[in-house]
Design goal:
- By secondary structure, the chain is α/β, with parallel strands linked by helices.
- The protein folds into two domains: 130 residues, Collagenase (Catalytic Domain) (3-Layer(aba) Sandwich), CATH 3.40.390.10; 31 residues.
- It contains four helices and eight strands; from the N terminus they run βββαβββββααα.
- The strands form two sheets. Strands 2-1-4-8-7 form a five-stranded mixed beta sheet, with helices on both faces. Strands 3-5-6 form a three-stranded mixed beta sheet.
- Strand 7 and strand 8 form a beta hairpin.
């Protein structure tokens, strides 16, 4: 996926992403220094209005009501992805940050395209719970995720049409199988 708009909010190292850079506005972070994904996406959409997918990279720790923390989040209705470097950095391996950031961006871009989490070990859509797991998660989709080839789509369409035809045929044949109807006399 190509992001047509990209924004860096906060103190993200300059070499990680070439995009417009803005400081976090007052009130964006809570008292613990965390940013709500909804608020930071709203800020990004206002700061870079326009069409096309929006990528926001921040150094703030991301939160959402149902999660204590997140590496990133995809907001499909607003076509926006936010990814945080806060939990991706490893002081012992500073070179890992770039690869981890790209991996998480690829994962969230998959959600933006409508993909769900995948349980396959060699899939970028596999969920992870630690930054170290990002080091072994590939940046590409497995064979079960992503757009299906036309032949697979045609098989599904033919199977659906076959089932519909079978149900219609059963509905037509059911009166014949029941035998003649008993006509109840009216009084």
């Amino acid at each position: 996926m190509t992001f047509t708009r990209a924004l860096v909010v906060g103190e993200v190292p300059a070499g990680l992403l070439h995009a417009e850079r803005l400081p976090a506005p007052p009130g964006l972070l809570d008292s613990l220094g965390r940013a709500s994904v909804d608020r930071i996406i709203e800020f990004g959409c206002c700061a870079l209005p326009g069409d096309g997918p929006l990528l926001i990279v921040t150094d703030a720790d991301l939160t959402r009501r149902e999660c204590q923390w997140l590496f990133g989040y995809a907001d499909v209705p607003r076509a926006a992805v936010v990814v945080s470097t806060y939990r991706l950095a490893d002081p012992a391996r500073p070179e890992a940050l770039q690869a981890r950031l790209l991996n998480e961006i690829a994962h969230e871009a998959g959600h933006l395209r409508g993909l769900r989490h995948c349980s396959h070990e060699s899939c970028v859509m596999r969920p992870v719970t630690s930054a170290a797991e990002l080091d072994s998660r590939p940046e590409f989709l497995c064979g079960n995720c992503g757009p299906k080839p036309w032949s697979a789509r045609l098989r599904v369409a033919f199977a659906a049409m076959f089932l519909i035809a079978m149900v219609a045929a059963l509905n037509l044949l059911m009166p014949l199988a029941a035998g003649p109807r008993f006509a109840m006399p009216f009084t």
